[in-house]
């Protein structure tokens, strides 16, 4: 079960995520017909993280806030502004950690609003994100011209997507190039948690069986493991230490999601020279486990926005 990302984000991010997922699958024990994956023995070769850590100008191998919003919408979700972090809260964030977390959160909210053609909310959330970026001294990542460009292109969704993508990646690049990668990681975690929060809330009391949105949430088990590796890379940073402890609360919930994958087979198409790697995946997820995950995510997100 792999996330289906929309090819509007720069291809390098898409390719890196797909490589990460493929690499994880290929490290399964080939002597077995199926392999049970748990948090403790999650089969991610450390070499991939060595490669990722060298690529300082990309946002590693995780979905950006825009990608996350696209995944949520592609699963058939509907817009609900009550799930977003109110823009009025922006004045409350004064520490680097809070501003970084909520830059990620507001960027996800911005992406979510824009995908559902919520013009005024899109502008409001871009302004909130700008306040966080200004507080973090991310120069020129979001300026008044960016907001003006949004206003002028409210009827052009493709252009809006490009603006949001460029804004987020510019923020990340600025932080990495100015020796602040740990802040960039915190921004990423804020956006990831917000996307997971919105997704779990949108599921609500609906059945988790054959639910596309639940499928997208289960996909994040891999993302979570990668996030832990990123946090470990900056484990001596004060804000990262605290954040690592908080993110550790998700370990049990994700650990209770059991994923079994059959052996990967190379399948060649008769009418072309394309060979595809295919594997059957079976997920064991109870309603109780999903509710535990949803409540843990809600608690984390509430800590981030207060």
Average residue-wise pLDDT: 78
Main β-sheet description: 3 strands, antiparallel
Structural class: mainly alpha
- Outline, from the CA principal axes? globular
Please write the string of helix (H) and strand (E) elements.
Answer: HEHHHHHHHHHHEEEEH
Task: Report strand %.
Answer: 5-15%
Are there runs of 5+ residues with pLDDT below 50, and where?
1-45, 47-61
SS elements, strand count? 5
User: How is the largest sheet built, in terms of strand order?
Assistant: 1-2-5
- Counted by DSSP, the helix tally is 12
Task: Describe the protein's architecture and organization.
The chain has helices at 11-26, 46-54, 65-74, 96-115, 119-135, 144-152, 157-177, 181-203, 212-233, 238-247, 250-255, 287-305; strands at 34-37, 258-262, 265-268, 275-278, 281-284. The chain has 306 residues and is mainly alpha-helical. The chain has a domain at 64-259 and 291-305. The strands form two sheets. The chain has a three-stranded antiparallel β-sheet with strand order 1-2-5, with no helix packed on it. Strands 3-4 form a two-stranded antiparallel ribbon. A hairpin with a 6-residue loop joins strand 3 (265-268) and strand 4 (275-278). The two termini are 34 Å apart.
């Amino acid at each position: 079960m792999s996330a289906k990302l929309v090819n509007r984000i720069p291809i390098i991010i898409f390719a890196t995520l797909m490589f990460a997922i493929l690499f994880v699958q290929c490290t399964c024990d080939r002597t077995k017909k199926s392999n049970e994956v748990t948090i403790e023995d999650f089969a991610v070769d450390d070499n991939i993280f060595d490669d990722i850590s060298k690529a300082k100008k990309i946002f590693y191998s995780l979905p950006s806030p825009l990608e996350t919003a696209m995944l949520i919408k592609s699963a058939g979700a509907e817009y609900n502004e009550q799930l977003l972090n109110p823009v009025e809260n922006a004045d409350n964030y004064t520490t680097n950690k809070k501003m970084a977390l909520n830059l990620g959160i507001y960027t996800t909210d911005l992406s979510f609003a824009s995908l559902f053609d919520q013009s005024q909310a899109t502008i409001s959330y871009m302004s909130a994100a700008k306040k966080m970026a200004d507080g973090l001294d991310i120069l020129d990542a979001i300026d008044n011209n960016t907001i003006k460009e949004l206003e002028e292109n409210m009827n052009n969704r493709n252009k809006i997507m490009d603006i949001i993508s460029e804004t987020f990646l510019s923020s990340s690049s600025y932080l990495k190039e100015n020796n602040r990668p740990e802040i960039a990681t915190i921004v990423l975690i804020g956006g990831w948690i917000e996307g997971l929060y919105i997704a779990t809330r949108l599921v609500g009391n609906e059945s988790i069986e054959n639910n596309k949105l639940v499928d997208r949430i289960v996909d994040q088990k891999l993302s979570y493991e990668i996030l832990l590796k990123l946090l470990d890379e900056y484990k001596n940073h004060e804000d990262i230490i605290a954040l690592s402890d908080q993110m550790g609360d998700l370990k049990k919930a994700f650990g209770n999601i059991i994923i079994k994958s059959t052996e990967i087979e190379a399948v060649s198409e008769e009418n072309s020279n394309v060979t595809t790697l295919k594997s059957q995946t079976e997920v064991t997820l109870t309603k109780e486990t999903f509710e535990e995950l949803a409540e843990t995510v809600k608690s984390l997100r509430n800590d981030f926005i207060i």
